[in-house]
Design goal:
This protein is mainly alpha-helical. It is 51% helix and 8% strand. It has one domain. The chain has helices at 13-20, 40-56, 59-63, 67-88; strands spanning 27-28, 35-38, 91-92. It has a three-stranded antiparallel β-sheet. Helix 1 packs across helix 4 (67-88) and helix 2 packs antiparallel against helix 4. The chain binds zinc ion. Zinc ion binds next to loops.
Length: 102
């Protein structure tokens, strides 16, 4: 679970999920209300998970299953991947240089 670098408290899964989907790069800590940012490393890990999703859409072609079944697998996989985010999230006090501009 992500841990606030300002107050050191661990976020609950539900708190982390809510904050991932909030807009903007800064994420507000539920305990100290300070701004936190995702580390580049955790952004990269999320990016890899994102790249896996489109590949799942190719499953119906590879496995010769119907697109309805393929889409169901895709939807479940997307949910599983989103639910993994809090475990991947790593926080930092300072916004790092955006991924790709290092
Ligand atoms: Zn905090």
């Amino acid at each position: 679970m992500p841990e606030c670098k300002n107050c050191g408290r661990k976020w609950k899964w539900s708190e982390a999920i809510k904050r991932i989907f909030s807009l903007g790069t800064a994420i507000i800590c539920p305990y100290c209300e300070e701004k936190q940012y995702l580390t580049n490393q955790s952004r990269r890990k999320m990016g890899i998970l994102h790249m896996l999703l489109p590949l799942l859409l190719l499953l119906p072609l590879i496995l010769n299953i119907s697109f309805a079944v393929g889409f169901t697998i895709f939807a479940i996989a997307a949910l599983v991947i989103f639910s993994m985010y809090p475990f991947i999230m790593e926080l930092t006090n300072e916004d790092e240089i955006p991924f790709g501009k290092e």
